[in-house]
User: Fold this.
Amino acid sequence: NAGVTQTPKFRILKIGQSMTLQCAQDMNHNYMYWYRQDPGMGLKLIYYSVGAGITDKGEVPNGYNVSRSTTEDFPLRLELAAPSQTSVYFCASYDSSSGTYEQYFGPGTRLTVT
Amino acid sequence: GENVGLHLPTLSVQEGDNSIINCAYSNSASDYFIWYKQESGKGPQFIIDIRSNMDKRQGQRVTVLLNKTVKHLSLQIAATQPGDSAVYFCAENRDDKIIFGKGTRLHILP
Assistant:
């Protein structure tokens, strides 16, 4: 298993540009999450999904959109990039039938908006 | 949990001693609590979790204690090793949302 994969690893965007951060997992996990982590800070939940076709807002959803058309993929879309979205973005997944809330995290995407 | 301040609190512990990392949570409705370890440049790694109907759970070299009365969670690491150097986060499950608290940086002294 590759686990949770994220692409790209790094990206620099200009203000107002758009991009999609990709996240995929091959563990057949039903729950998937997007977090952002600003330098020296904790993780803030952006969006999450409890299964294909179902998404919901987290703590900081403004400026982002998600979709979950398959179990494996959970892309995060930034429509009009702003400097405040400079951060490291982590995708995570877990299996709610496992009896534990053990999330598996991807390696992160480091995004800079200038 | 919420992020406050610009810098993570730091706990410095002598190698071989026990470490105790504390976390306060805010929502009494949270039903599950998790501890994560994050090494520099990597995503968080699951360490141990505990249900809200328990007050203690032990793993390999780690123990989590939950005090629901004061909404407090702690992670105890026995015989701290250099490889334990990392940032540690507590997280809570609230209606399928897993919310992270502020982290603590664990620094190991030789």
